[in-house]
Please model this.
Amino acid sequence: MEIHVDKDACVGCGLCVKDCPMHVYELQNSVSVAVRPNNCMGCLSCHEICPAQALEHRGIYAARRHYIDIKVCEMLRKVV
Amino acid sequence: MSAGYIDELHEAFQSDLVYRSEDIPLECSPRPKEMEQTLHGVMKLNGLIIRSLEEIAGRGANAVTYRAGKKFGHEVAKYFQKREDVEGALHELSDLLRGQYSFEVWKPEDKETFIIEENGETFIYLVFHDCIVRQTLRRNGLDQGGPLCQTLFGYVVGAIEEITGRKAKLEIVHTGPNACLKKLVLK
Model:
């Protein structure tokens, strides 16, 4: 697992540090650093709470997303 | 309501198909793509049932859903080969749950084995990747870890108990949008 933190985007709020049960992240000089990437189990709750969207995971298994409504996506595609 | 509309409605439900009582459908009908609305309807209905159950029964809702899941786990797993090793049982369980849930045994970097002994407890970490419960909860904007998750807990515990004959307990360690970490405590 490879975790990349965008240092320019990270605001150093520490939410990912608090949320991760496996202590993957640490704050160093007010920026989050993935110190134990091999302990990451890919839940992606850090992505959900990061206010700066500064995180990127590589080599992750993306779970099925049945809850995404195809019709809503079609409408969004027309707008975006 | 106009007569024309009623005729149109009746026509929609008429066909030339000959269907005998002994006919066995050989494929899923309609095709899965066309079942999206059905799937979303079922997810919505499940979400509403769980929300209402929680409103009326409070914490008792967890006991109801856990019990339902456990019965289901026992029921399904009784046709599987009985075995004593938990790892083998988990392998059987992953076959059993395929299509609804997918999970893997997991360990933190500093642990040597998947079966961990800590503070007098023996447990295995399970990471659930695909999960119909999570899909339903997110479809309805409900919190993870509530009564609907208890059905999955009951299911896993019931199946493990049925396959291995050992008592077990499943605890939530962490929930996320893409995976959840659970702890299977063996007794």
Summary: The domain at 28-186 of chain B is CATH 3.30.1380.20 (Muramoyl-pentapeptide Carboxypeptidase; domain 2). Chain B has a mean pLDDT of 84. The beta strands of chain B are 101-106, 115-118, 121-131, 168-175, 180-186. The longest strand of chain B covers residues 121-131.
